[in-house]
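ARCHIVE CARD
Drawer: 12
Card no.: 0347
Subject: one protein chain, sequence and derived structure
Cross-reference: see card 0346
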Amino acid sequence: MQTRKLGYSELYLTTIGLGTWAMGGGDWKFGWGPQDDMASVKAIHTALDLGINWIDTAAIYGHGHAEEVVGRAIKGIRDEVIIATKCGRVWEGDSREIGKSLKTESIKQEVEASLKRLDIETIDLYQIHWPEPDEEIEEGWAAMAQLVKEGKVRYVGVSNFNLEQLKRAQAIHPITSLQPPYSMFRREIEEEIMPYCNTNEIGIIAYSPMQAGLLTGKFTKERAMALPESDWRSKHPFFREPQLSVNLETIKRLNQIAIEENISLSQLSLAWVLRNKEMTSAIVGARNPEQIEETAKASELKLTGTNIEAIEKILDWRIKNL
């Protein structure tokens, strides 16, 4: 499987990484519905067997549960995998309420808790999950830099930062990576953020490259409308009318290109994201081994200029009809 260097770091990530958001289960505000832990562990082992060399998780996924699942899965094979996790979203005890903090003491407590749940000594890539509260960004990023000096983490990155916030953090300590949403349906980073990251040796890791499963081609209107309340997608505009019908028609047109290339729509979506040289890797979530077996193959795919042009026309149609 192909690897790309992550920003200025010495980490080489496979172009497909395994995401664990869904592995946190459905018992929290942004869950994906119920999830079997054994299926999660098998998915992680399958991903590693396929050559994927890194896992992305976060403390808030299932309020610590996803990190615990990852820790269980990598026990005995820690040296074979790069671990990335995140901080900045907090909770108290058994509370389901989610707080926001980038205070120094909060981050110190979070890193210790993540290390314990993951059962590792050092986190390879530690990321601020959201730039919130905005007024605490400088304090939080200085705390992250201190964790590098202490050896708790190897490199630090950010997620969901805008351009102005990236510049504020970069002035304090070099940013290793940015993790933004990026897919055929979410392209906000292309105009300013991608060039900035390229100039400043900041790696880019795309999350939700298949738009939370929408760009797998496996959604129908009926399935979208039947999503349980425990699945955060049931409330997202992409999965509700009036956007849903336009999105499904767009997907139908994109799928024709995938069929012509004898690949799945998931693979087409990932290859499209990875067409950018600035993109280090794309995070792919999986609930079971079968899902990661399909999407891992996208690492080797290259889209032709003709395909990219055809996709652009379809995406232009979508924007005009939303």
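Annotation on reverse: The first helix runs from residue 37 to 49. Residues 270 and 298 are 6 Å apart (CA to CA).
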